[in-house]
């Protein structure tokens, strides 16, 4: 699609839509989820091969798409930034600086519009927050929180996935982490990860450093 045709197509959208900047794995999943809910999207992606992937999708609602650098203000405007029907902008490219430039442009040209930005470091998050970004997503921090919940409250994680997961996805069994076996100064302990309780199980006079053994699903550490 040519630049002028893309701009005209977006200008003629009169129902609510979201401007998605970046069509990597996350962008593809987001557009797919919004399409399932019959919500319109517009995509700006820098890599032509990702645009080609989008062109092959059989979405129920047509997705205007353009291969360009979304961090350039002109392309954001062409993508519908100033369109009254634009409900928000999602900056999920794989470049922290590009996402920051997108967030700044949105807040300068349309301050009341919701902007969601992706970052991969605390410094980038702090920088983006200083410009008033509405929602900042750090995938590494999200994963860390989910892992913590999986270890300490697996049933809570299962409920969360049920409420927020993909439509029609099947429920899996809760993750019940195995006990961890540790030895301190010749005394063996079993650590229950969920209950955070220690239980001495065996005494030995040997003091040594052993291997990490995952074959029987136990973490064995002898000191």
UniProtKB/TrEMBL annotation:
It holds the Pfam family TrkA_N. It comes from the Bacteria. Residues 18-139 form the RCK N-terminal domain. One of its GO terms (biological process) is potassium ion transport. Transmembrane segments: none annotated. Gene3D superfamilies: NAD(P)-binding Rossmann-like Domain. This is TrkA-N domain-containing protein.
């Amino acid at each position: 699609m040519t630049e002028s045709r893309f701009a005209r197509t977006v200008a003629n959208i009169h129902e609510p839509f979201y401007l998605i900047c970046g069509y990597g794995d996350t962008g593809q999943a987001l557009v797919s989820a919004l399409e399932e809910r019959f919500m319109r999207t517009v995509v700006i992606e820098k890599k032509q091969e990702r645009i080609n992937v989008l062109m092959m999708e059989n979405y129920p609602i047509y997705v205007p798409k353009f291969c360009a650098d979304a961090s350039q203000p002109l392309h954001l405007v062409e993508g519908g930034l100033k369109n009254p029907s634009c409900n928000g902008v999602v900056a999920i490219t794989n470049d922290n600086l590009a996402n920051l430039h997108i967030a700044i442009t949105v807040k300068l040209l349309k301050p009341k519009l919701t902007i969601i930005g992706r970052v991969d470091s605390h410094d980038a998050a702090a920088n983006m927050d200083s410009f008033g970004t509405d929602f900042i997503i750090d995938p590494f921090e999200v994963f860390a929180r989910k892992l913590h919940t999986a270890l300490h409250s697996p049933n809570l994680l299962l409920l969360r996935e049920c409420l927020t997961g993909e439509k029609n996805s099947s429920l899996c069994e809760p993750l019940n982490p195995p006990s961890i076996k540790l030895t301190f100064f010749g005394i063996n302990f079993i650590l229950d990860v969920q209950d955070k309780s220690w239980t001495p199980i065996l005494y030995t006079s040997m003091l040594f450093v052993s291997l990490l053994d995952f074959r029987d699903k136990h973490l064995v550490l002898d000191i």
